[in-house]
Amino acid sequence: MIELKIDSQQECYDDACRIELGRVAAAHKYVSGLVWKLGGSCTLTLDLYDLRSETMDSSIELTDVACSDAPIKEALGNAVELLARDYTNSTSIPLKQHILSSTNPKPVGPKQQNRFLGDLSNGKIRVEWFGMNMGGGYQKYGRSNGLLDFHAFTVNGRNWYYGILEGGFFLGIGHTGVGGRAGYQYIAKHDWVIRAGGKLGWTHSEDWKEDGYFHYHNIEIAPHLQFLKFLKHGSVGLGVDVLIWVPALIHKEYEPKGDPINIDGGVYFYFRWSAF
Q1: Which residues contact 125 (CB under 8 A, 6 or more apart)?
Q2: Whole-structure pTM value
Q3: What pLDDT was estimated at residue 104?
Q4: Residues 46-62 as b or e (16 or more Cβ within 10 Å = b)
Q5: Which domains does the chain have, with CATH numbers?
Q6: pLDDT by 10-residue block (mean), the chain, 276 residues
Q7: I need a labelling partner for 205 at 20 to 30 A (CA). Which of 29, 38, 98, 197 fits?
Q8: Radius of gyration of the chain from Cα atoms?
Q9: Could you tell me if 141 and 264 are in contact, meaning their C-beta atoms sit under 8 angstroms apart?
Q10: What's the confidence (pLDDT) of residue 19?
Q11: What does the alpha-carbon distance between residue 46 and residue 213 come to, in Å, rounded to a whole number?
């Protein structure tokens, strides 16, 4: 054992080296543990080897574990119990002989975040299929209006999002055409997501004047900020859009007096929800 202590000071990181040390120490079984971080979550793996037959008896992997002390400790306890169960089921040895703790079994897979955000943290692409923005705001030229938008197919990566289709109504002044949103998103604690980006689309609006009115076909540019809480099958939250409307085509209805609007804009606040 003195020689073993001296040799163990050498570099010994792989399982082959550790198994050899276990043999020298007259051990029958060897457990190898690994915690590795990918994105915003950790994965815990426990492997049980038989040193005499040089085979693996069992392997347990827990994913989507929060990368802090308490969740990793809880996941380790769960993994030990699962490893013991798996081993005892194949060898018919009572479970209690292989559990070092007397605590009751805990649910597998400690909860760190919902599956949607967990997939994003692990590099997968997920889609919010449809949803709505419901709110209101105030335009530059003294108009208060309601906002009702429908959005579909918002594609999400870990730190980005792209809303392919969005359209709806500005109650009182006209309606939006089609457009899309894109930007950066940050996955915060407790399943909250912060988004910052822009919307590009087309809108139709009207400006009533004496003896007639103007029809506007506008290019819509809308920087936005959203705070969203992700749930099991959807998200809810709040957002704010700063709308900028640049007229691309102006049409007169009758002979309105006065000049048409060169550029319009406003601020709109809304409640947002989505389903996936």
Answers
A1: 155, 156, 157
A2: 0.57
A3: 40
A4: bbbbebeeeeebbebeb
A5: 2-112 (no CATH), 120-275 (2.40.160)
A6: 60 63 74 87 88 79 89 90 77 38 38 76 92 90 80 94 88 68 93 95 84 88 96 95 91 88 90 96
A7: 197
A8: 30
A9: yes
A10: 65
A11: 73
Q: Are the CB atoms for 193 and 187 separated by under 8 Å?
A: yes
Alpha helices in 56-150 (DSSP H): 69-91, 115-121
Q: What pLDDT, on the 0 to 100 scale, is given for residue 13? A: 57
Note whether 148 and 169 are within 8 A (CB).
yes
The confidence score (pLDDT) of residue 92 equals: 39
Q: What are phi and psi of 71, to 5 degrees?
A: -65, -35
Pull the structure tokens for residue 110: 């400690």
Nearest to 77 by CA among 111, 56, 46: 46
> Tokens representing 241?
């859009």
Name the token pair of 37.
């971080």
Torsion angle in degrees (nearest 10) through CA of 202, 186, 189, 136: -20
Residue 11 CA to residue 259 CA, distance in Å, equals: 81
CB 220 within 8 A of CB 176: yes
Q: Tokens 């040089």 identify what position?
A: 54
